[in-house]
Structure formats: structure tokens, C-alpha cells
Design brief:
Blueprint lengths: L2 H16 L45 H16 L9 E3 L14 E6 L5 E6 L7 E5 L8 H4 L1 H10 L3 E5 L14 H8 L4 H15 L6 E6 L1 H12 L3 E7 L5 H11 L6 H4 L9 H8 L5 E7 L11 H11 L3 E7 L9 H12 L1
Parallel strand pairs: 4-5, 4-6, 6-7, 7-8, 8-9
Antiparallel strand pairs: 1-2, 2-3, 3-5
Helix pairs in contact: 7-10, 10-11
Length: 350
């Protein structure tokens, strides 16, 4: 084979690979999946989610025994069978980024043994209650564009102590892995310890000092809130904003739009083969606790559309506590809106 012919073959192979680079095509060539441009992802439900599909069959938890067994499974996968009893330790950071927050009386920083930094913000007139606010992948400095900063300041104005967090490897949290994908590849389901462990440590430290501990999260923080509330029953109220959509539902949208954004931790854990997102929602509202899921109908990123109307009634029925869904149609962004903040307010007042 002459060098010119070899070069042409290599060029064709390279072009084929480039045509379906990850994560854009997620394993499908562009020729195999063409977006349906006549279909509206915001207002139409994918055909795959219509009968004979049964959204109730996605839920496997139907009793208190089922709840306990599922929670034990999560704890075993993450920590070998027992929740961490460690607590974050106080540190004096070189730079505490609290710019823009007006209702802080005092602030401190904690360091989780899992490597996560937490800012604990105290109000001028504390009401004796605490809320963990998880901002997901967003940097602390960029919290305002997502609406998380407004939520934090509002909670402080109401007298809540706020523990502000973000995901491992994001913003102020560094290494030792290069990405969430690398973390999951290295640790599999046990990577839950890195994602959820810092939240458990914060609850450990807050629990004896406050009358209750609630949690609210946006985007990746919404996903973290779902997992944390499913695992730790001390989180009495939880609100997950623009944080997840069940795997079967995401796959149905993907058949129409081809590219559906979901972070590695949303998709790549093997435990989703046994515990569905619907199961996780049920666990988050177990033991008489309350959880609300708030998704944006016109979200510019992910978890958009109206298909949640199919699974929400079944999750609400299966939960032994109170689980509700709120569709936010007031904007066209990936953010925590004023409407979402009002719903979180109502949750905390229930």
C-alpha cells in the first residue's frame, strides 16, 4: 500500500471519528440520529413515554421495608454499610468569597474530610434552623446568574443559618481527580462517598445545634440534594431545582433531540440499573419528610419539558411522606427563579 493511499484511509477514519466525538453524540453517529426539528421538546411528550409505557413500573419501592433495603444499599455502595460519623473541621480560608450577600452577620469556613469546602453563613436574627444550599457545578462567584445567591441572601434574611456548598472538583474544590468522569471510572458506585459524604458531614455537625436541617440544591446541587435526602433521613425538607429527570425519560428525549446533556454522575453510576430516579425521589420523601422537585419547562440546558406529569403522580403516591412536583414556566433559562424561591419558602414553612 503506497503512502498516499494510506494517508487517505487514515483521513477518512479520522473524519468518521470526529463526526461523532464524545460527548456530543454519546455513542451514536450523526447519520444514525437526526434531530426531529418538527418536534417541540418543551411542550410535547416523546412517543416512547406514551402507552404502553407505564411510569408506575419505574418505581420499585412500595413499603417501609423496601425503603430501608434501598437506603442500606446506597449506604453500602458509598461507605461499605455505615454513614460517616466524621464532621468537617473549621478552617481560616485565605479568601472567603462572600461578595454580594447583604444579610450575613458572621461567616465561617469548614473543610470536609472528603476535600470539600463549606461556607457557613449566620444571620443577624437566627431562627434556630439551618438550610444546606448546594450550588452544584457553579462557582461561588457565579452564584448570582443561577439565582442561588439570591436564595442564600433571602434565607439569611429569614433567619436561617446557611451552609453553602458545591460539588467536588468544582470551583473552590480541587483534585485529586481531574474530572467527575475520572472519579466515577476510578471508584464506581463508591464515588457517591465523594459527592454525598461532605453533605453528611455537614448534617453531622449541624444536627445537634439546630431544630431541623433542610436542603436545597440547584442543577448538580439538585442531583446532590436528591441523593443526600434519599440517604440521610435527618434532612427533613428538601428542594431539588433543575437537577434531574429519570433515565428512561432522558433516553426518550434523546431519541428525538439526539444530544441530551446529563453530567457523568447523572448517568454513569451502575446503581441506576437497580434504583431508578423515581425510587430516589420516593426515598427523599420517606419517614414523613417533605421533598419538592422543581424543573424548568423551557430550561436552556436540561430536564426540560412536560413529561414529568407522567411520573410525578406515581412518585407522590408511593412516598411515605410528602413529595410534590412544580413545573416552572416563568422563564427560559437554566436557573433558580423567583417562583422556585417562593416554592422553597413554602416548603420551609410547611
Amino acid at each position: 500500500m503506497d503512502s498516499t493511499r494510506l494517508f487517505r484511509i487514515l483521513l477518512v477514519c479520522w473524519a468518521a471519528l470526529a463526526g461523532c466525538g464524545a460527548p456530543a453524540c454519546s455513542g451514536q453517529s450523526r447519520a444514525q440520529c437526526k434531530p426531529d426539528t418538527t418536534w417541540d421538546r418543551f411542550t410535547e411528550i416523546p412517543l416512547a413515554l406514551k402507552p404502553p409505557f407505564d411510569p408506575a413500573a419505574e418505581i420499585h419501592i412500595h413499603s417501609l421495608d423496601d425503603e430501608s433495603a434501598a437506603r442500606r444499599r446506597l449506604i453500602k455502595e458509598a461507605w461499605g454499610g455505615k454513614l460517616p460519623e466524621s464532621v468537617p473541621f473549621s478552617i481560616q480560608p485565605a479568601r472567603a468569597d462572600l461578595e454580594g450577600l447583604e444579610n450575613i452577620d458572621s461567616a465561617e469556613a469548614w473543610q470536609s474530610l472528603f476535600g470539600t469546602l463549606i461556607y457557613v453563613l449566620h444571620p443577624a436574627a437566627p431562627n434556630g434552623r439551618a438550610v444546606i444550599v448546594h450550588q452544584g457545578h457553579a462557582s461561588y462567584a457565579g452564584r448570582w446568574s443561577s439565582g442561588v445567591g439570591t436564595l442564600i441572601d433571602h434565607l439569611l434574611s429569614r433567619g436561617f443559618t446557611v451552609a453553602a456548598m458545591q460539588m467536588p472538583l468544582q470551583g473552590w474544590n480541587k483534585g485529586p481527580w481531574t474530572s467527575h468522569a475520572a472519579l466515577i471510572e476510578a471508584r464506581g458506585n463508591a464515588s457517591l462517598a465523594q459527592f454525598i459524604g461532605p453533605v453528611i458531614e455537614v448534617v453531622n455537625r449541624l444536627y445537634d445545634s439546630y431544630t431541623d436541617v433542610s436542603m436545597a440544591g440547584f442543577s448538580g446541587g439538585g442531583w446532590t440534594t436528591v441523593l443526600a435526602a434519599a440517604i440521610d433521613t435527618r434532612i427533613t425538607r428538601s428542594a431539588a431545582v433543575a437537577g434531574s429527570l429519570p433515565v428512561t425519560f432522558r433516553n426518550a428525549y434523546k431519541e428525538k433531540v439526539c444530544i441530551y446533556h446529563a453530567s457523568d454522575e447523572q448517568s454513569d453510576l451502575e446503581l441506576y440499573n437497580e434504583l431508578s430516579y423515581e425510587d430516589l425521589y420516593v426515598l427523599g420523601a420517606s419517614d414523613g419528610r417533605r421533598q419538592v422537585q422543581i424543573n424548568n419547562q423551557y430550561d436552556s440546558c436540561c430536564f426540560y419539558g412536560v413529561s414529568s406529569s407522567l411520573y410525578a403522580p406515581h412518585v407522590a403516591k408511593a412516598a411515605s411522606g410528602s413529595w410534590t412536583f412544580e413545573l416552572d414556566s416563568t422563564h427560559k433559562n437554566h436557573k433558580l427563579s423567583t417562583k422556585a424561591m417562593e416554592r422553597i419558602d413554602a416548603l420551609l414553612d410547611e
